[in-house]
Design brief:
two-stranded antiparallel sheet, Lysozyme-like, alpha/beta
Length: 223
């Protein structure tokens, strides 16, 4: 589920001059949003972070390895317009363990346990390596779920309800439409070789729960 790390994102043909207020691309002024995207490439520049800060009310912070995500300033530098649903192929402790492992190369923003408990491992403003596609990682929030794709009993009432509230909150924060074009499974990411959340994930049920949660009004950030 990871983003293939290719090192620092190359500037390519763009020539960025920082200092003196100049930013030039082929003689044209670089757009403001491109400058915002470039901040994390500048040595010594780092956005402020507060340890344990949450985006979802009621989540428990447990940090993923810094090797499994990268700094960003979303949605200012990358628009967030997708939620990607994953299934661990394992239990909740396993998900936390591998996402804390710097050698794993992948992590999601959230992990949802069978009893509905939610762990947040990466801030939504940052890019998690979860979808296996750089562009999708930059535009999405990833939610992992405890269980196995071939075990429908793993997808409990508590898990569905909690995950739906989480997804509804994300959609409210970023103006994401509550539909299957914008709330997708990992299997639907272009080029993926993953099959999760699998044939037993009840999309009709889940989307109804998300719509019901969304109708209750936008959920505010915990931070």
């Amino acid at each position: 589920m990871g983003e293939k790390r290719r090192g620092t994102k190359p500037v390519g043909r763009r020539a960025v001059l920082i200092g003196g207020g100049a930013a030039v691309v082929g003689g044209a002024v670089l757009a403001r949003d491109e400058l915002r995207r470039a901040w994390y490439r500048v040595p010594g520049v780092e956005k402020d972070r507060v340890e344990g800060e949450l985006d979802h009310v009621g989540a428990q912070w447990t940090a993923a390895s810094r090797a499994n995500w990268r700094y960003a300033d979303r949605p200012d530098d990358f628009t967030i317009d997708r939620v990607v649903i994953h299934v661990v192929q394992g239990d909740y402790p396993t998900a936390l363990k591998v996402f804390k492992d710097p050698g794993h190369g992948a992590a999601t923003h959230y992990v949802v346990r069978k009893d509905g408990h939610v762990a947040q491992m990466i801030r939504e403003l940052d890019v998690a390596f979860h979808a296996g596609d750089r562009g999708m990682n930059e535009r999405s929030v990833g939610i992992e779920h405890e269980g196995f794709v071939d075990r429908p009993q793993d997808f409990t009432d508590a898990m569905y309800a909690s995950s739906a509230r989480l997804t509804a909150g994300i959609c409210a924060r970023y103006g994401i439409p509550v539909d299957r074009e914008h709330i997708i499974g990992h299997v639907e990411v272009e080029g993926t070789d993953h099959t999760d959340p699998g044939p037993h994930w009840d999309w009709d049920r889940y989307m109804k729960l998300v719509r019901d949660a969304a109708a209750g009004g936008p959920r505010t950030s915990a931070s």
